[in-house]
Amino acid sequence: MAAAKKQLFLGSFVHSKALDKLEFLHGAAVCVDQSGTIVAIERDCDEANAIEVLFPRLGWVKAEVVVVRAREGQFFFPGFIDTHIHAPQYPNVGIFGNSTLLDWLKTYTFPLEHSLSDPAKARQVYTRVIRKTLSHGTTCAAYFATIDVASTNLLADLCVAAGQRALVGRVCMDVQGSPDCDYYRDATAESALASTHASIAHMRTLDPTMSLVRPILTPRFAPACSLPLMRALGTLARETNLPIQTHLSENKAEIALVKSLFPPATTGATDDSYAAVYDAMGLLTPRTILAHAVHLTAAERALVVARGAKVSHCPCSNSALGSGLARVRWLLDAGVVCGLGTDVSGGYSASVLEAARQAALVSRLVGVTGGGKGGEREKLSVEKEKEREKEEEKEGERQKLSVDEVLFLATRGGAEVVGLEDKVGGFEVGMEWDAQLIGLGTVGEGGEVEGGEDDEGGNVDVFGWESWPERMAKWVYNGDDRNTKKVWVKGRLVHERK
Ligand SMILES: O=c1[nH]c(=O)c2nc[nH]c2[nH]1
Q1: Same domain for 139 and 243?
Q2: How far is CA 474 from CA 71, 200, 333, 479, in A?
Q3: E strand or H helix at 299
Q4: Is the preceding omega at residue 345 within 30 degrees of 0, hence cis?
Q5: CA of 218 relative to ligand 1 center, distance in Å
């Protein structure tokens, strides 16, 4: 369902123009037609100008247009794209104890996912996770559901009803005892495939033009999938052009497990790396989303680039489960397209803004732990050692992701990861109006927050002397859903903070 009316948005607009460059448009106008498409963007244009100049150009009549104004200090920003989130795990956010990936799956995750074959529970959880993510400005999410077809289909139904753009994947996992999920798995590769077809068919009927919701093939991760299942999903991807999502190289024990389960002689892979297993199964495509990619080797990175597969960087989860520090600059340097994932509930928050904040912070740690290089260190003379230290310091600095960069990953980068870069992620004529209205707190002369001491600005206080880049930094490092005043998808208002 799109916007029913023509809309004129007025005020400040901020979006990414390049990885390291936010663009600020102040006193601007954006026209959005009934289909939710941006049809005009005009700088230095107030309401009177828009009516006088833009409307005749568009053949619009004033009476048919709804006007939405950003107040002084507020700004429109593209909706966030969560490139990796497990909808059924939402009730577990923040609950992970001291576990690491494989024991976390067994202790916390599989029992919860299994329980969502209860339709009432699935409805409760999925309704909540959609509302929660919309309230944080997530206009598009790549969701893992569960192995249950009915509740996966329900997730897709609820996304359409709530107006959230989504890729919805029925999880495929047919391996017995690896890792320890006999009660929660597909009985065979054939039944996994049949269930996948059933949920694809449902989504094709639900949204035939895939204007909001589309299916995505979802082999959970190599240790939970048989070779016949992975091979069949690779073939299906080739035949249908459907996107794929899976996990790659998240945790060292997982990587060791993959090496032991899939020696190259069994897969026909060129080497024993994790990425090579997926490649041999036809699962590395330009439409593949690889979550985590924390411990990739240089050869795996080159393979990912060669296949055009994309990476979902999940810093909250990587830190919570102690998986490691993903080297995002190292990935970007090689041309890997990256976006951000909350990875609920390995990740403790459903907020992409939190993921952006953690991406910035983790990149600073990558910088001080060897510039993303690692490995054996050659012994050098004192002089040469000093030179090396200087070089490493410089390289460490370069690992840091700026505010502009993490906001790019949260929007434009994410759009490319989910294959929607022509539609969403920025404000351009021809793109769709997936946007959020952000409001920060304005501190008055007496130190009070204008509009009242309620949650007007949430955790962000703006004193008025900050530059716009500084306001963006305050938002990234201190903002939350209290700053997300309104959210639109395809021109439709899907969330409003009361
Ligand atoms: O962060 C993760 N969450 C999961 O649910 C999962 N399954 C396999 N590997 C995984 N990693």
Answers
A1: yes
A2: 18, 42, 27, 7
A3: helix 298-307
A4: yes
A5: 12
Kindly report whether the peptide bond that precedes residue 208 is cis, defined as omega within 30 degrees of 0: no
What's the CATH code of the domain at 385? 3.20.20.140
| Tens digit of each residue's pLDDT (9 = 90 or more) over 253-264 | 999 999 999 999
Task: Return the ligand 1 atom nearest residue 101 CA.
Answer: 11
Binned average pLDDT, 10 residues per bin, the chain of 498 residues: 85 98 98 98 97 97 97 96 98 97 95 97 98 98 98 98 98 80 92 98 97 98 97 98 98 96 95 97 98 98 98 98 98 98 98 98 90 64 88 92 98 98 98 97 88 74 96 98 97 96
Q: What is the pLDDT of residue 176?
A: 67
Listed residues 369, 386, 417: the one ending a domain: 417
214 and 347 in a single domain? The answer is yes
Domain residues for the domain of 270 are 80-417
Q: Compute CA distances 313 → 301, 317, 396, whole Å.
A: 14, 9, 19
Question: What does the pLDDT look like over 110-122, one tens digit per residue?
Answer: 999 999 999 999 9
Q: Which residues contact 29 (CB under 8 A, 6 or more apart)?
A: 8, 9, 10, 40, 41, 42, 45, 46, 47, 49, 50, 54
Whole-model pTM: value is: 0.97
From CA 323, how far away is CA 318, in angstroms rounded?
Answer: 5
- The response to whether residue 458 sits with its C-beta less than 6 Å from ligand 1 reads no
Examine the domain organization and report whether 356 and 462 are in the same domain. no
CA of 104 to the centre of ligand 1 (A): 9
Domain assignment present for 105: yes
Q: What is the ipTM of this complex?
A: 0.98
- Shared domain for 49 and 95, answered yes or no, is no
Q: What is the spatial distance between Cα 89 and Cα 316, in angstroms, rounded to a whole number? A: 15
Tell me how long the chain is.
498
Q: Is the CB of 109 under 6 A from ligand 1?
A: yes
